[in-house]
Amino acid sequence: MIIWNLPPYYHNLISTAPPCSASPTTTILSTSSSSFSPENFTASLSATPATSPSDPNKRVFQPFGNAAALFVLMGAYRGGPSSFSVVGLASKPIHTFGKPWFKCEYLSNNGTTTRATKAVKILPDWGYGRVYTVVVVNCTFPSNPNSDNSGGKLILNAYYNESPNLFERLTALEEDAGSYNESKFSPPYPYEYLYCGSSLYGNVSSSRMREWMAYHAWFFGERSHFVFHDAGGISAEVREVLEPWIRAGRVTVQDIRDQAQYDGYYYNQFLIVNDCLHRYRHAAEWTFFFDVDEYIYLPDGNTLESVLAEFSDYTQFTIEQNPMSSVLCLNDSTQDYPSMKKLVNTIKEFEQKKIGTKDVKHFS
């Protein structure tokens, strides 16, 4: 698993083409006029109105509404035979100033209940959270709670504070009978390399996306897969670029636009990346995370296999960032870049062979 700590990047991903002329998507809420009548509204979460105290100096604090959810579930995944990871968001003030905690249970379809010890929570966003922060809850049981493969449910109890009396109970994961397959947790994995992309937002250039996708599909080879997360940045033009790769089974696009309801750091990119890493933990030998304005390049004739062999004893490493030149132009008639032209032609041929694209001008 390879993880990079990268600064915000899409402000630099400026389209080389004019802005998209398509009309912006507008969501219209259609409802009957009667639904807006006062009697159909609930104004407060308070069960009973506050009573006036007999002492005029006794002040009353009466709550209305709900500022942030205790926990927002995105996904839950097996980490192995006896462990699970639950990925989501939680109120940052609660986790910064309070002492919330979690407990896991597994309710088997055979009628038994397996309880884990107090779950371990991880806050992986390094303090960048806003109203919401990212929480990864690790649930480890003494043994496989679904050893008979009868299926069951992973239950998460999320506690507001140290008291065990106030909590929310939710179903994090359901396993069907017969679905457990222990061989998934060991090689050979479906892919050799897997790419986890961060939240795509803003005006992503379709031509640059086409270059990026073709290059890295060639670079990582046949046994690679790419997972993109659409936070509003995959326009119709970008989708058209990715569609042939989706049909070829090389790309998965997940719609995460609903994350905008929860105020987290940079389109909740820490949430998205952690979810992807846990979701595809046993899908590939190596998992890469970098941005779509960055290209993996190996100098001095090194191969990806030889470089990764040097890090076979490590669970993760980072890659040094170096700026690309902003003055090179492949089509500059006064310059000759034989190595660059050879690479471009190689990738063009690869793209045409794999997804049948026409030889149009898009590599610049």
From TrEMBL:
Transmembrane segments: none annotated. One of its GO terms (cellular component) is cytoplasm. It is found in: Membrane. Keywords: Glycosyltransferase, Membrane, Transferase, Transmembrane, Transmembrane helix. InterPro entries: Glyco_transf_92. GO terms for molecular function: glycosyltransferase activity. Its EC number is 2.4.1.-. It is a single-pass membrane protein. Signal peptide: none annotated. It holds the Pfam family Glyco_transf_92. Belongs to the glycosyltransferase 92 family. This is Glycosyltransferase family 92 protein. It comes from Brassica cretica (Mustard).
